[in-house]
Amino acid sequence: MAEDCTVSSSSGTTALTALVFGRFLLVANAGDCRAVLCRKGKAVEMSQDHKPIHASERQRVEQCGGFVYDGYLNGVLSVTRALGDWDLKVPPQGSPSPLIAEPEFRHTILTEDDEFLIIGCDGIWDVMSSQYAVSVVRRGLRRHDDPQRCARELVMEALRLNTADNLTVVVVCFSESTAVRLRPVATGSSVPV
Questions:
Q1: Which of 20, 68, 120, 140 could lock onto 150 through a cystine, CB 3.0 to 4.6 A?
Q2: Which is one GO molecular function term here (predicted)?
Q3: The model's pTM
Q4: How far is it between the farthest Cα atoms of the chain?
C-alpha cells in the first residue's frame, strides 16, 4: 500500500476530535494533540498524549518489536499513534506495527460544573500544563467572554513561552455564564453565531 501512495511514505499527522451530543462528550485521539475539560476550574485531561516516553505506549511499542531511542519511536518519530507514516507501519514479516492509527476514546457526561473544553496540538502542550492553559482561558473569559479570543491568547502565550512547534487551538464553552453571541438577520430576528 505504501508504494502506491503519491505522497511521501514518511508523511503523517495526528488527529483529535471531540463530539458533544446533548450532555455526552466523546473524545477520540491518535497522537500528541490534547483535549482538556475545565471542571470547576480544574483541568481534566480527556485524552492521553501518545508519546514513546509514556510507559504504557513504550510497553506496547516494545511488545511489537519497536524501540524507543532518545524519546522517539524507532529513533525517528515523536508519537506512537498517527495517521500515515507508512514507512514505520510496515513491520518485519508477521509482526504488528509499533506505530498504529487506532485512536483512544474517553467520554464523560457534562454537568453544570463543566465550563469549557480546550483542544490543542502539541505546540501548546509542549510549553504549558493543562492546568496552566485552563487558567489562561478562565482569566480571558472573565475579562472578555470570547472563546475565540481565548484561543488566540493561548497561542500568544505559547509563543511567549518559546514553543518550537506549530500551534492550533480551539476553545468550546459549555458554561451558561458564557454569553451566547447574537447578530441580527434580515428578518429582524437573531441567530447565534
A1: 140
A2: protein serine/threonine phosphatase activity
A3: 0.83
A4: 67
What structural domains and CATH numbers belong to the chain?
2-192 (3.60.40.10)
Low-confidence ranges of the chain (pLDDT < 70): 1-9, 91-94, 175-193
Which burial class, exposed, middle or buried, applies to 70 when counting CB atoms under 10 A from its CB (0-12, 13-18, 19+)?
exposed
What does the alpha-carbon distance between residue 103 and residue 15 come to, in Å, rounded to a whole number? Answer: 8
Which tens digits make up the pLDDT trace of 137-180? Answer: 999 999 999 999 999 999 999 999 999 999 999 999 996 655 43
What does the chain come to in residues? 193
SS3 content of the chain, % helix, strand, coil (to 5): 25, 30, 45
- Whole-number Å distance between alpha carbons of 184 and 52: 50
Question: DSSP readout, 5-47?
Answer: -SS-TT-EE-EEEEEEETTEEEEEEESS-EEEEEETTEEEE-S
Q: Is 181 within 8 Å of 192 (Cβ atoms)?
A: yes
Contacts with 47 (C-beta within 8 Å, 6 or more apart), sequence order: 16, 27, 29, 33, 34, 35, 104, 106
